[in-house]
Design brief:
The chain is mainly β and 715 residues long. It has 5 helices and 37 strands. The chain is globular, with a radius of gyration of 25 Å.
Length: 715
Amino acid sequence: MLVLGVLLSTAALSYYSQALEGIRIEKITVEEKKVKEEVASKKELTQEEAKITRQIDLGEILSEFYPEIWYMRKAGIANDLYIRGFSKDNINVLIDGSKIYGACPNRMDPPSFHVSSPQIESVTIKEGPFDVENAGSLAAVVNVKTKDPKKGIGGEVGGTYGSWSYRTGYVWGNVGNKYIKVLVGASNQYSKPYESGEGKKLTEYARYSICNQANTPQCKIMGYKPQYINDKAFNIDRVWFKTILTPNDNSEIKLSYAFENARNVLYPALKMDALYDRTHRLNGDFLLKDIGLKFSVYYNEVKHDMRDTFRETTYRRDTNWNITGDRPYSMMTYAESKMFGAKISKDFNIMGVDTTVGIDTYLRNWFADNVQNAFTTQENKNPGMIPDVNIKDIGLFIKGSKNIDKWTISAGLRYDYNYSKADPNRISGKNRDFITNGLLTKFSNTDNYLSGNIVAKYNFNKKDNVYIGIGHTVRAPDPQERFIALSGMAPWYGNPDLKPTKNTEIDLGGEYFPLNNLGLRANIFYSDLKDYIYLYQYQAGSNCLVPGTTWCTTYKNIDAVIYGGDVSGVYAFNDKISAELGIAYQVGKKTDKKGIYKDSDLVEIPPLKTRMAVKYDDGKFYTLLEGIYSAKQSKVDSDLKEQETGSWFIMNVKAGYTYANRLFVGVGIDNIFDRFYYNYLSYVRDPFRGISVSGNPVKIPEPGRFIYANVSYRF
Ligand SMILES: [Cu+2]
């Protein structure tokens, strides 16, 4: 993985730096002291460049390069990231160092959805509990850095056109001098529903049963209305702005704003689609270089409206299911997420130790209102499905690193005070039964915890090294896990007594260059999870309170382990042709079933994945042929009705040409052989996932053969 290619000659290096850049992706396995003079070949082992991709979303881009990275698919876009078997709030996804949370209780808009390829300069992935600068980096932190404005006048215009009317277009321009630099950009991303390898539209897989005891027959299979089977799959507009002010050589002020309007995003895996998802992001960063003082402040908000407007479930029907009319929607959730944060940090050098101390704080607010059976006499309202939850977190951190002979030792420590509070008065519909019947009993909670890590790295020379890292991190339960209150067809309630999840992890690894043109990197990890937050589904009976339902879902703390490893290598045949290999595997187990779980397998743990690629890159021409293989996953959690997924192998090819360092033309074919396959993580856990009569959840296959072309022109 990781690997761009071991570039051997300085000639090849300069080609690389002159060529039009894709998205730079860098993986840092453990926290380490920055090496002042990076060795070229080593840099290439740890950096990857996404030059030619469909650029649909970050989940797809990252999972192509890194076998330990996966995504959960619910739609043609907005895939949710998984890293080494961890997901959701267990991984920290930051945009320019800022935390951002999606608004949708079904994670239709995961954090990485709120930034798009043309905005991105680089992505840094740090796996394991080795981050103390940001709250709650339990198992990984991904920082997406957006492009900075530069001196002079310049910009780029470009786009992608691909199968099933997929098209993106973007333009950004930049103007700046020594004192002020400004960058402005805009983009649109649009697609119709893609087809799977068996030639069916994504939307055709949305077939789930709707039941009504008064009807004959009692259940009926429904899905999209015919006119939406091949209509839009998503349509997203984005604009962004960034300015850097440098009043003198010592200080820098960076201000940025981005707006995103996603419309008609179809989620066939669920029973609703997003009519809109609107995001505002504001960032301010202030830097005083001579004293190493940095102050950052940010605010972001997401407004999300999802409905079943495009589905057959809106039709009014008689008792024989004959259509008698239509409604604007039968179910709807409106949700808002707001995030305000500030961080101040200062660098010191104390007795040769590079030290950073800081305060990192945020205020998170989240609410969602839901309605089911709307415009009927059985209307079921769930106001405060997420009951206007506020989370305040204040963290203090210190980290440092020092070189001693051939050793690099680094360590970090963090203390967090976390207070979460819900508004019980917002829970005022049918979902109030959760309170009156004693299932939701508490509406605030305080957590205090310590995180820390120590990493020792032994450098044999400038390239070869081995390291060991031990880390402990904690993340507080999120508003949904503690306070959700959703009655109706899939009763779901939070557990206010949930404890924060603690991860104590050991990582071992190294980088080894046995030959000048061969680089290897390996890492293994063992993660011991105390109070891991886990779904619990049980037969409702009388205590789930909602008549006519059989299964009720809430959350429990369990103890678990996740362990695994990855290996990557790169071999350069010469300064133009190279081969890459990556492989990753992880296992997840419940170590304490608490007397309520039967299966010891953890849910949503990816199987073995490998990637092999051969690449030619002379600075002008670029071609890449890659094969990606996923093993079958039979270690599934039957407690959560998880199903096995078969193995698959796909091949992708891409080729590009750079003309005069200005014009770039790329073409690619993903899934050349039009294979029909499912990504491992394509189901469970969503309250609004469609379920068939036989009890199987709706699953969304991956795209079939996808042909696309990228063009960009830098001016
Ligand atoms: Cu949603």
